[in-house]
Design a protein that fits this description.
The protein has 327 residues and is α/β, with parallel strands linked by helices. It has a domain of 218 residues: NAD(P)-binding Rossmann-like Domain (Rossmann fold, 3-Layer(aba) Sandwich), CATH 3.40.50.720. 43% of the residues lie in helices and 16% in strands. The chain has eleven helices and twelve strands. The strands form three sheets. The protein has a seven-stranded parallel beta sheet, sandwiched between helices. The termini are far apart.
């Protein structure tokens, strides 16, 4: 069985590739000319040069494949050109799913995000069915992923056997960029995290998140969503775990939200002039106003998603960042 993977050079995508190879699957990976291939080094993977917006190239790449994992996305909390992010996340999703339909792909797993789901915002966890609308989306990343999910639903209606997975916040090795959460870990290791906001995240080991994708292919119901998450933790709890792992003191000062929000507005305004990424992304601060807690019970019950201690995943992330020179 040959499997086509987009986003294979990224954090989640590279872990999906490794899980597929461990299962004895043949993998063809879409890679852009400018892609950093470090996450695929040494792996027995067929590289397919192309781009998400190259519909003819995508169609050729999918020939002979049985399954598609669409994990590619432009994931940034700030961009000077939001239209570019929308082209990749919305237009790219439409293009690759159209190619899948043309090639009669038997099963598609689309990587969305818990950011597209409803969240009560009061510490209660959101589910796949919590009410939500585009107006609830903060920043271009969430907006673009919300609209991309709507594109995926259109293809389900056209008969594509597609399962949507909504990862929470994966942590672990191969976070090459790193992601915004990975950057928090790196900054902690560099002792650049003197204070924290009162917020929370749902963490999952990236390996379990990747395995959840494969379980969704094998056991998921087309048209159904599955949250791939594990533990709901406050940011303070996460820093406490990192302190236990590393011996580096966790920040003890909790910052008030409003002054940080004002600083983020000013910082982003300056970034729009200079083109440099803001030190305090406004979208990140606005998201931090709510505890992003989610219930992954459906994936546990219906897919058999593992729920091992996330402290182990944080340990692997710390080790990987240290070995690879991020600290």
């Amino acid at each position: 069985m040959k499997t086509f993977v987009t986003g294979a050079t990224g954090f989640i995508g590279a872990s999906i590739v490794r899980e597929l190879l461990n299962d004895g699957r043949e993998v063809r990976a879409l890679v852009r000319p400018a892609s950093n291939l470090a996450n695929l080094k040494g792996l027995d993977v067929e590289l397919w040069p192309g781009d998400l917006l190259d519909s003819p190239g995508l169609s050729r790449g999918l020939k002979g494949c049985d399954v598609l994992y669409h994990a590619a996305a432009d994931y940034r909390l700030w961009t000077r050109n939001p239209a570019e992010m929308f082209r990749t996340n919305v237009g790219g999703t439409s293009a690759v799913l159209e190619a899948a339909l043309e090639n009669n792909i038997s099963r598609v797993v689309y990587t969305s995000s818990v950011g597209t789901l409803g969240n009560p915002g009061d510490g209660m966890p959101g589910t796949e069915d919590t009410p939500v609308s585009l107006a609830n989306m903060v920043g271009p990343y969430k907006k673009s992923k919300f609209l991309a999910e709507r594109e995926a639903e259109k293809f389900i209606a056209r008969g594509l056997a597609l399962v949507i997975v909504n990862p929470s916040t994966p942590v672990g090795p191969w976070d090459i960029k790193p992601t915004p959460t990975g950057k928090i870990i790196v900054d902690f290791l560099k002792r650049m995290m003197p204070a924290y906001l009162d917020t929370g995240l749902n963490l999952i080991a990236v390996e379990e998140c990747a395995r959840g994708h494969i379980l969704a292919e094998q056991k998921g119901c087309p048209g159904r969503k599955y949250i791939l998450g594990n533990a709901n933790l406050s940011l303070r709890d996460i820093f406490t775990m990192l302190q236990e792992i590393t011996g580096i003191p966790a920040p003890r000062v909790r910052l008030p939200y409003t002054p940080v929000l004002m600083a983020a507005w000013l910082n982003e305004g300056f970034s729009r002039i200079t083109g440099h990424e803001p030190l305090i992304p406004l979208a990140g601060v606005r998201m931090a106003a709510h505890h992003m807690y989610f219930d992954s019970g459906r994936a546990v019950r219906e897919l058999g998603l593992s729920q091992t201690p996330v402290k182990n995943a944080l340990e692997r992330a710390v080790e990987w960042f240290r070995i690879n020179g991020y600290v």
